[in-house]
Structure prediction request, 262 residues.
Amino acid sequence: MWQKSIRTAVLGAVLMGLAGCGSQHVETAGKTPGTATAGTWTLAEPIRIDNVRTGDGGRSLMVGATVPDGGVDCVRGLRGEPATVEHGTVYVRVTLESRSQDLESGCTGTRQVEVPVKLDEPLGSRRVMVNSLDVYTPAGATPPFLRKCDENGCDPTPPRCTSPSYRQAVADTDVPKHTSWEERGCDGTWLVLDLSTRMGPVCGDVGDGCSSRLAQRWFYRAETSGWQMVTMSGAAGCSGIHKVVPEFPTSLCARLPRLDRG
Prediction:
């Protein structure tokens, strides 16, 4: 009798344990994979800032950005607001809530959006810094878009017949890094540069392994934002440039030799 009571008590405890496990399994299994919960939404910034333009007479900004996409409800709460204005710069913060870090969300793609930012007063000549990283300026820009500042800063080097100005012209030309230049003519309005890029299996910094070079001759016109590329021609004299820009000064191109590309 005593042993029977022990067996009954143990059996009852095992059944209660199994019942409890069954209830817990049903509650978990009842959730659909990928279903959002309060804990999956996190405050974040856009993947990338693409552009900034003005609106409403300069009293607002539209910030173009790349955000997560691909699943259902990948982004919510897109918000842009000016944080502060200091030293001629409007500091703007763009944020969102995202589930992209949830592996089951399906938010593995991207899409472009525009986020409005209201300003207390017109932007004028002030710059805009977004999320303490990208800086945009109206100087040298084509309205309504602002110009993104690069490694050379926000103030382009004035188009002058000086080495720093030539360096800026080369930096703005679509050529590889480590490209050198030789001035062929400059009068403050027009510029001719011969650009040379060392080529080879291990080229980069000047050194061994660069057995040849790529030579190009570029013609530039002075604009408010700096030297602007007009055309490229390796022909001797003025024949190449005059086909594109007849008004180019003959004094700057008449003695140009044919460009050696080897």
Summary: The first helix runs from residue 2 to 29. The two ends are 107 Å apart (CA to CA). Confidence is low (pLDDT under 50) at residues 1-39.
